[in-house]
Amino acid sequence: MGNNHLTGNIPTDIGKLTNPLRSLYGLKQAPRAWYEAFYRALLSLGFSASSSDTSLFIKKDITITFILVYVDDIIITGSSSQVCQTIISQLQAIFPVKDLGDIHYFLGIEVTRSPHGLFLHQSKYALDLLKKTDMLGVKPCSTPVSSSKLDHSGTPLADPTSYRSIVGALQYLTWTRPDLAFAVNQVCQHMQTPRTIHLQAVKRILRYLKGTIDSGLRFTKGAQFLTAWSDADWAGCPVDRRSTSGYCVFLGPNLVAWSAKKQNTVTRSSTEAEYRSLANTAAEISWVCKILFDLSFPLLRTPVIFCDNKSAIALAFNPVFHARTKHVELDYHFIREKVLLGQIDVQHVNTLSQIADIFTKSLHADRFLSLTAKLSVRPSTFSLRGCVRSTVGSQSYQRCTAPD
Protein backbone atom coordinates (compact mmCIF):
# COMPACT_ATOMS: atom_id res chain seq x y z
CA MET A 1 0.00 0.00 0.00
CA GLY A 2 1.39 3.39 -0.97
CA ASN A 3 1.40 6.26 1.52
CA ASN A 4 2.38 9.56 -0.07
CA HIS A 5 2.54 13.00 1.47
CA LEU A 6 1.74 15.87 -0.88
CA THR A 7 1.81 19.59 -0.41
CA GLY A 8 0.06 22.10 -2.61
CA ASN A 9 -0.11 25.85 -2.94
CA ILE A 10 -3.10 27.96 -3.83
CA PRO A 11 -2.44 28.64 -7.53
CA THR A 12 -2.33 32.24 -8.66
CA ASP A 13 -5.18 31.65 -11.09
CA ILE A 14 -7.50 30.00 -8.58
CA GLY A 15 -9.38 33.28 -8.45
CA LYS A 16 -10.73 32.44 -11.90
CA LEU A 17 -12.62 29.59 -10.29
CA THR A 18 -14.46 31.93 -7.95
CA ASN A 19 -14.02 35.60 -8.82
CA PRO A 20 -11.79 36.59 -11.78
CA LEU A 21 -11.43 40.16 -10.52
CA ARG A 22 -9.83 39.36 -7.20
CA SER A 23 -6.69 37.59 -6.05
CA LEU A 24 -7.34 35.26 -3.13
CA TYR A 25 -3.89 35.38 -1.54
CA GLY A 26 -4.10 36.97 1.89
CA LEU A 27 -7.88 36.86 2.09
CA LYS A 28 -9.77 34.93 4.74
CA GLN A 29 -11.69 32.90 2.16
CA ALA A 30 -8.52 31.63 0.43
CA PRO A 31 -8.48 28.22 2.22
CA ARG A 32 -12.15 27.71 1.45
CA ALA A 33 -11.67 28.62 -2.21
CA TRP A 34 -8.71 26.23 -2.40
CA TYR A 35 -10.80 23.45 -0.86
CA GLU A 36 -13.66 24.04 -3.29
CA ALA A 37 -11.30 23.95 -6.27
CA PHE A 38 -9.55 20.84 -4.97
CA TYR A 39 -12.92 19.24 -4.16
CA ARG A 40 -14.15 19.70 -7.73
CA ALA A 41 -10.86 18.35 -9.09
CA LEU A 42 -11.13 15.19 -6.98
CA LEU A 43 -14.72 14.63 -8.06
CA SER A 44 -13.59 14.86 -11.69
CA LEU A 45 -11.00 12.15 -10.96
CA GLY A 46 -13.69 9.78 -9.66
CA PHE A 47 -13.39 10.42 -5.92
CA SER A 48 -16.36 10.83 -3.59
CA ALA A 49 -16.43 12.71 -0.29
CA SER A 50 -16.89 10.74 2.91
CA SER A 51 -20.23 11.33 4.61
CA SER A 52 -18.53 11.18 8.02
CA ASP A 53 -15.43 13.31 7.44
CA THR A 54 -15.36 16.19 4.97
CA SER A 55 -11.57 15.98 4.67
CA LEU A 56 -11.63 12.35 3.48
CA PHE A 57 -12.09 11.38 -0.18
CA ILE A 58 -12.45 7.83 -1.48
CA LYS A 59 -12.17 6.24 -4.91
CA LYS A 60 -13.34 2.66 -5.39
CA ASP A 61 -12.94 0.63 -8.56
CA ILE A 62 -10.68 -2.40 -8.96
CA THR A 63 -8.50 -0.84 -6.30
CA ILE A 64 -9.34 1.53 -3.46
CA THR A 65 -7.62 4.87 -2.88
CA PHE A 66 -7.96 7.43 -0.09
CA ILE A 67 -7.04 11.09 0.03
CA LEU A 68 -6.97 13.05 3.29
CA VAL A 69 -6.84 16.84 2.97
CA TYR A 70 -5.93 19.52 5.48
CA VAL A 71 -5.86 22.86 3.61
CA ASP A 72 -2.83 22.34 1.33
CA ASP A 73 -1.34 19.30 3.10
CA ILE A 74 -2.51 16.07 1.53
CA ILE A 75 -2.06 12.36 2.23
CA ILE A 76 -2.82 9.82 -0.47
CA THR A 77 -2.81 6.09 0.19
CA GLY A 78 -4.43 3.01 -1.25
CA SER A 79 -4.19 -0.63 -2.17
CA SER A 80 -2.05 0.09 -5.25
CA SER A 81 1.09 2.25 -5.27
CA GLN A 82 0.88 2.53 -9.04
CA VAL A 83 -2.64 3.96 -8.89
CA CYS A 84 -1.52 6.44 -6.22
CA GLN A 85 1.30 7.66 -8.46
CA THR A 86 -1.11 8.02 -11.37
CA ILE A 87 -3.44 10.17 -9.27
CA ILE A 88 -0.50 12.30 -8.11
CA SER A 89 0.44 12.92 -11.73
CA GLN A 90 -3.15 13.89 -12.53
CA LEU A 91 -3.21 16.33 -9.63
CA GLN A 92 0.13 17.82 -10.68
CA ALA A 93 -1.37 18.54 -14.08
CA ILE A 94 -4.09 20.66 -12.39
CA PHE A 95 -2.36 22.21 -9.36
CA PRO A 96 1.22 23.05 -8.37
CA VAL A 97 1.43 19.98 -6.12
CA LYS A 98 4.75 18.64 -4.83
CA ASP A 99 5.20 14.95 -4.05
CA LEU A 100 7.16 14.58 -0.79
CA GLY A 101 7.35 10.81 -1.09
CA ASP A 102 6.49 8.37 1.71
CA ILE A 103 5.02 10.16 4.68
CA HIS A 104 7.46 11.01 7.47
CA TYR A 105 6.10 14.30 8.82
CA PHE A 106 2.55 15.65 8.68
CA LEU A 107 1.20 18.68 10.55
CA GLY A 108 3.77 18.34 13.31
CA ILE A 109 3.24 14.59 13.67
CA GLU A 110 6.22 12.40 12.83
CA VAL A 111 5.64 8.97 11.29
CA THR A 112 8.22 6.21 11.63
CA ARG A 113 7.90 2.83 9.93
CA SER A 114 9.12 -0.56 11.05
CA PRO A 115 8.43 -4.16 10.02
CA HIS A 116 5.89 -4.28 12.87
CA GLY A 117 3.84 -1.21 11.97
CA LEU A 118 3.80 2.57 12.42
CA PHE A 119 4.95 4.80 15.24
CA LEU A 120 3.39 8.27 15.54
CA HIS A 121 4.99 10.85 17.78
CA GLN A 122 5.60 14.58 18.21
CA SER A 123 9.13 14.57 19.60
CA LYS A 124 10.24 17.63 17.66
CA TYR A 125 7.12 19.55 18.65
CA ALA A 126 7.56 18.59 22.32
CA LEU A 127 11.24 19.55 22.28
CA ASP A 128 10.43 22.93 20.75
CA LEU A 129 7.77 23.50 23.43
CA LEU A 130 10.24 22.71 26.22
CA LYS A 131 12.74 25.11 24.71
CA LYS A 132 10.12 27.82 24.36
CA THR A 133 9.16 27.51 28.03
CA ASP A 134 12.77 27.18 29.30
CA MET A 135 11.96 23.76 30.75
CA LEU A 136 14.72 21.73 29.10
CA GLY A 137 16.80 21.50 32.25
CA VAL A 138 14.03 20.56 34.69
CA LYS A 139 13.84 17.30 36.59
CA PRO A 140 11.29 14.89 35.08
CA CYS A 141 8.37 13.53 37.12
CA SER A 142 6.54 10.23 36.85
CA THR A 143 2.97 11.52 36.27
CA PRO A 144 1.54 14.66 34.65
CA VAL A 145 -1.04 15.28 37.41
CA SER A 146 -0.54 15.68 41.16
CA SER A 147 -2.90 14.17 43.71
CA SER A 148 -4.33 17.58 44.67
CA LYS A 149 -7.24 18.90 42.59
CA LEU A 150 -7.20 22.32 40.95
CA ASP A 151 -9.42 25.04 42.40
CA HIS A 152 -9.47 28.85 42.48
CA SER A 153 -6.85 29.27 45.15
CA GLY A 154 -3.58 31.07 44.53
CA THR A 155 -2.71 34.49 43.12
CA PRO A 156 -3.98 35.51 39.67
CA LEU A 157 -1.24 35.59 37.04
CA ALA A 158 -0.07 39.05 36.02
CA ASP A 159 0.17 37.98 32.37
CA PRO A 160 -2.22 35.11 31.49
CA THR A 161 -1.23 35.24 27.80
CA SER A 162 1.81 33.01 28.28
CA TYR A 163 -0.27 30.48 30.23
CA ARG A 164 -2.87 30.30 27.48
CA SER A 165 -0.20 29.93 24.80
CA ILE A 166 1.47 27.00 26.59
CA VAL A 167 -1.83 25.24 27.31
CA GLY A 168 -2.89 25.68 23.69
CA ALA A 169 0.38 24.08 22.58
CA LEU A 170 -0.17 21.19 24.99
CA GLN A 171 -3.63 20.62 23.51
CA TYR A 172 -2.12 19.89 20.10
CA LEU A 173 0.36 17.51 21.71
CA THR A 174 -2.49 15.26 22.87
CA TRP A 175 -3.00 14.09 19.27
CA THR A 176 -0.32 11.44 19.87
CA ARG A 177 -0.15 11.58 23.68
CA PRO A 178 -3.41 10.33 25.22
CA ASP A 179 -1.58 10.02 28.54
CA LEU A 180 -1.67 13.84 28.69
CA ALA A 181 -5.40 14.16 27.94
CA PHE A 182 -6.71 14.40 31.50
CA ALA A 183 -3.93 16.69 32.71
CA VAL A 184 -4.37 19.06 29.77
CA ASN A 185 -8.15 19.02 30.21
CA GLN A 186 -7.70 20.15 33.82
CA VAL A 187 -5.51 23.16 33.02
CA CYS A 188 -7.72 24.10 30.05
CA GLN A 189 -10.60 24.74 32.46
CA HIS A 190 -8.81 27.75 33.91
CA MET A 191 -7.89 29.68 30.77
CA GLN A 192 -10.07 32.68 31.66
CA THR A 193 -8.45 33.61 34.97
CA PRO A 194 -5.38 31.41 35.50
CA ARG A 195 -3.67 31.48 38.90
CA THR A 196 -0.32 30.41 40.26
CA ILE A 197 -1.65 26.97 41.20
CA HIS A 198 -2.69 26.41 37.60
CA LEU A 199 0.72 27.47 36.29
CA GLN A 200 2.32 24.97 38.66
CA ALA A 201 0.08 22.27 37.17
CA VAL A 202 1.24 23.24 33.67
CA LYS A 203 4.88 23.06 34.74
CA ARG A 204 4.27 19.58 36.13
CA ILE A 205 2.94 18.49 32.73
CA LEU A 206 6.08 19.90 31.10
CA ARG A 207 8.25 18.06 33.62
CA TYR A 208 6.47 14.81 32.77
CA LEU A 209 6.90 15.62 29.08
CA LYS A 210 10.63 16.12 29.62
CA GLY A 211 10.97 12.52 30.77
CA THR A 212 8.77 11.06 28.00
CA ILE A 213 9.69 13.27 25.06
CA ASP A 214 10.14 10.35 22.65
CA SER A 215 6.86 8.63 23.53
CA GLY A 216 4.09 8.18 21.00
CA LEU A 217 1.45 5.83 19.66
CA ARG A 218 2.18 2.50 18.02
CA PHE A 219 -0.06 0.95 15.38
CA THR A 220 0.25 -2.70 14.45
CA LYS A 221 -1.80 -5.27 12.58
CA GLY A 222 -4.58 -6.80 14.62
CA ALA A 223 -8.10 -8.15 14.79
CA GLN A 224 -10.97 -6.33 13.05
CA PHE A 225 -13.18 -5.39 15.96
CA LEU A 226 -13.87 -2.34 18.13
CA THR A 227 -13.66 -2.26 21.90
CA ALA A 228 -14.13 0.76 24.13
CA TRP A 229 -13.76 1.62 27.81
CA SER A 230 -16.01 4.21 29.42
CA ASP A 231 -15.59 5.80 32.84
CA ALA A 232 -16.60 8.85 34.87
CA ASP A 233 -15.33 10.54 38.01
CA TRP A 234 -18.51 11.58 39.80
CA ALA A 235 -18.51 15.19 41.08
CA GLY A 236 -14.75 15.27 40.70
CA CYS A 237 -14.42 19.02 40.15
CA PRO A 238 -14.11 20.81 43.53
CA VAL A 239 -15.31 24.10 42.00
CA ASP A 240 -18.67 23.25 40.38
CA ARG A 241 -19.01 19.55 41.38
CA ARG A 242 -19.38 18.42 37.79
CA SER A 243 -18.19 14.99 36.72
CA THR A 244 -15.46 14.16 34.24
CA SER A 245 -16.17 11.68 31.45
CA GLY A 246 -13.48 9.63 29.80
CA TYR A 247 -13.36 6.98 27.12
CA CYS A 248 -10.92 5.22 24.81
CA VAL A 249 -11.73 3.26 21.66
CA PHE A 250 -9.50 0.52 20.24
CA LEU A 251 -9.49 -1.00 16.77
CA GLY A 252 -7.89 -4.34 17.48
CA PRO A 253 -4.84 -3.48 19.64
CA ASN A 254 -4.64 0.10 18.35
CA LEU A 255 -5.99 3.17 20.14
CA VAL A 256 -7.98 5.23 17.61
CA ALA A 257 -10.08 7.62 19.74
CA TRP A 258 -10.01 8.96 23.28
CA SER A 259 -11.46 11.78 25.34
CA ALA A 260 -11.29 13.44 28.75
CA LYS A 261 -14.03 16.01 29.16
CA LYS A 262 -16.02 17.64 31.94
CA GLN A 263 -19.75 16.97 31.71
CA ASN A 264 -22.05 19.89 30.90
CA THR A 265 -24.37 19.46 33.87
CA VAL A 266 -24.14 18.41 37.51
CA THR A 267 -25.17 14.78 37.96
CA ARG A 268 -27.09 13.57 41.00
CA SER A 269 -25.48 10.13 41.28
CA SER A 270 -22.51 8.12 40.10
CA THR A 271 -24.91 6.04 38.01
CA GLU A 272 -26.04 9.11 36.07
CA ALA A 273 -22.44 10.27 35.57
CA GLU A 274 -21.39 6.86 34.25
CA TYR A 275 -24.49 6.64 32.09
CA ARG A 276 -23.78 9.98 30.41
CA SER A 277 -20.25 8.83 29.76
CA LEU A 278 -21.65 5.67 28.15
CA ALA A 279 -23.73 7.84 25.83
CA ASN A 280 -20.66 9.84 24.76
CA THR A 281 -18.73 6.63 24.13
CA ALA A 282 -21.58 5.13 22.10
CA ALA A 283 -21.72 8.28 19.95
CA GLU A 284 -17.98 8.07 19.29
CA ILE A 285 -18.19 4.39 18.37
CA SER A 286 -21.04 5.15 15.96
CA TRP A 287 -18.88 7.74 14.21
CA VAL A 288 -15.88 5.38 14.04
CA CYS A 289 -18.14 2.70 12.54
CA LYS A 290 -19.27 5.15 9.83
CA ILE A 291 -15.65 5.95 8.99
CA LEU A 292 -14.80 2.24 8.77
CA PHE A 293 -17.82 1.69 6.53
CA ASP A 294 -16.59 4.44 4.19
CA LEU A 295 -13.19 2.75 4.18
CA SER A 296 -14.80 -0.60 3.25
CA PHE A 297 -13.38 -2.08 6.45
CA PRO A 298 -15.74 -4.73 7.85
CA LEU A 299 -15.99 -5.39 11.58
CA LEU A 300 -16.03 -9.06 12.53
CA ARG A 301 -18.15 -8.62 15.66
CA THR A 302 -20.38 -6.13 17.47
CA PRO A 303 -18.47 -3.27 19.15
CA VAL A 304 -18.24 -3.68 22.92
CA ILE A 305 -18.18 -0.96 25.59
CA PHE A 306 -16.72 -1.90 28.97
CA CYS A 307 -18.05 -0.05 32.00
CA ASP A 308 -17.33 -0.59 35.71
CA ASN A 309 -20.74 0.64 36.93
CA LYS A 310 -23.38 -2.12 36.98
CA SER A 311 -26.26 0.31 37.54
CA ALA A 312 -25.38 2.27 34.40
CA ILE A 313 -25.18 -0.98 32.42
CA ALA A 314 -28.59 -2.03 33.74
CA LEU A 315 -30.10 1.25 32.50
CA ALA A 316 -28.76 0.52 29.02
CA PHE A 317 -30.68 -2.78 28.92
CA ASN A 318 -33.70 -2.26 31.16
CA PRO A 319 -36.25 0.49 30.28
CA VAL A 320 -37.05 1.48 33.85
CA PHE A 321 -37.05 5.15 34.86
CA HIS A 322 -37.15 6.62 38.32
CA ALA A 323 -36.69 10.04 39.87
CA ARG A 324 -32.93 10.04 39.44
CA THR A 325 -32.82 9.00 35.80
CA LYS A 326 -35.87 10.42 34.06
CA HIS A 327 -34.04 13.63 33.15
CA VAL A 328 -31.41 11.69 31.13
CA GLU A 329 -34.04 10.18 28.86
CA LEU A 330 -32.42 11.30 25.59
CA ASP A 331 -29.14 9.61 26.46
CA TYR A 332 -31.08 6.54 27.53
CA HIS A 333 -32.96 6.19 24.24
CA PHE A 334 -29.74 6.62 22.25
CA ILE A 335 -27.95 3.76 24.00
CA ARG A 336 -31.10 1.64 24.23
CA GLU A 337 -31.61 1.86 20.48
CA LYS A 338 -28.04 0.80 19.78
CA VAL A 339 -28.33 -2.14 22.17
CA LEU A 340 -31.69 -3.30 20.77
CA LEU A 341 -30.38 -3.16 17.19
CA GLY A 342 -27.33 -5.17 18.18
CA GLN A 343 -25.00 -2.38 17.08
CA ILE A 344 -23.35 -2.02 20.49
CA ASP A 345 -22.88 -4.39 23.40
CA VAL A 346 -22.26 -3.10 26.95
CA GLN A 347 -20.35 -5.30 29.38
CA HIS A 348 -19.10 -4.97 32.93
CA VAL A 349 -15.41 -4.73 33.72
CA ASN A 350 -13.65 -4.73 37.07
CA THR A 351 -12.60 -1.27 38.26
CA LEU A 352 -8.95 -2.33 38.40
CA SER A 353 -9.16 -3.29 34.71
CA GLN A 354 -10.83 -0.02 33.67
CA ILE A 355 -8.43 1.54 31.14
CA ALA A 356 -10.45 4.76 30.90
CA ASP A 357 -9.51 5.59 34.52
CA ILE A 358 -6.53 7.47 33.12
CA PHE A 359 -8.88 10.00 31.46
CA THR A 360 -10.98 10.83 34.54
CA LYS A 361 -8.73 11.23 37.58
CA SER A 362 -5.20 11.58 38.87
CA LEU A 363 -3.51 8.24 39.57
CA HIS A 364 -0.48 7.07 41.48
CA ALA A 365 2.61 6.40 39.41
CA ASP A 366 2.37 2.59 39.20
CA ARG A 367 -1.21 2.53 37.97
CA PHE A 368 -0.63 5.46 35.63
CA LEU A 369 2.33 3.74 33.96
CA SER A 370 0.35 0.49 33.71
CA LEU A 371 -2.60 2.16 31.95
CA THR A 372 -0.29 4.19 29.73
CA ALA A 373 1.24 0.96 28.46
CA LYS A 374 -2.25 -0.43 27.75
CA LEU A 375 -2.93 2.65 25.60
CA SER A 376 0.09 1.68 23.46
CA VAL A 377 1.90 4.86 24.48
CA ARG A 378 5.56 3.85 24.52
CA PRO A 379 8.93 5.45 23.91
CA SER A 380 10.41 5.19 20.47
CA THR A 381 12.73 2.25 19.80
CA PHE A 382 13.35 3.27 16.20
CA SER A 383 16.18 5.23 14.65
CA LEU A 384 14.33 8.43 13.87
CA ARG A 385 14.96 9.98 10.49
CA GLY A 386 16.70 13.34 10.41
CA CYS A 387 17.66 13.41 14.09
CA VAL A 388 20.34 15.75 15.35
CA ARG A 389 21.95 15.33 18.75
CA SER A 390 22.51 18.59 20.59
CA THR A 391 23.71 19.58 24.04
CA VAL A 392 22.25 22.24 26.31
CA GLY A 393 24.31 22.65 29.46
CA SER A 394 24.95 19.20 30.86
CA GLN A 395 21.90 17.70 29.13
CA SER A 396 21.86 15.97 25.74
CA TYR A 397 18.77 16.06 23.54
CA GLN A 398 17.67 14.56 20.28
CA ARG A 399 15.96 16.91 17.84
CA CYS A 400 14.10 15.29 14.96
CA THR A 401 13.66 17.46 11.93
CA ALA A 402 11.22 17.09 9.07
CA PRO A 403 12.53 15.39 5.95
CA ASP A 404 13.20 17.43 2.86
Walk me through this protein's architecture.
There is one protein chain. It contains ten helices and 18 strands. By secondary structure, the protein is α+β, with helices and mostly antiparallel strands. The chain folds into three domains: about 1-105, TATA-Binding Protein (2-Layer Sandwich), CATH 3.30.310; about 120-215 and about 380-400, no CATH class; about 220-360, 2-Layer Sandwich (Nucleotidyltransferase, domain 5). It has a six-stranded antiparallel β-sheet with strand order 2-3-4-5-1-6, with helices on one face. A five-stranded antiparallel β-sheet has the order 7-8-9-10-16. A hairpin with a 6-residue loop joins strand 2 (about 50) and strand 3. It is globular, with a radius of gyration of 23 Å.
List the helices and strands and how they pair.
Layout: E1 2-8, H1 30-44, E2 48-49, E3 56-60, E4 64-70, E5 73-78, H2 81-92, E6 97-102, E7 105-106, E8 109-114, E9 117-121, H3 123-132, H4 160-173, H5 181-188, H6 196-211, E10 215-220, E11 226-233, E12 244-251, E13 254-262, H7 270-294, E14 304-307, H8 310-317, H9 329-340, E15 345-348, H10 365-374, E16 377-379, E17 387-392, E18 395-400
Parallel strand pairs: 11-14, 14-15
Antiparallel strand pairs: 1-5, 1-6, 2-3, 3-4, 4-5, 7-8, 8-9, 9-10, 10-16, 11-12, 12-13, 17-18
Q: In summary, what is this structure?
A:
The protein has helices at residues 30-44, 81-92, 123-132, 160-173, 181-188, 196-211, 270-294, 310-317, 329-340, 365-374; strands spanning 2-8, 48-49, 56-60, 64-70, 73-78, 97-102, 105-106, 109-114, 117-121, 215-220, 226-233, 244-251, 254-262, 304-307, 345-348, 377-379, 387-392, 395-400.
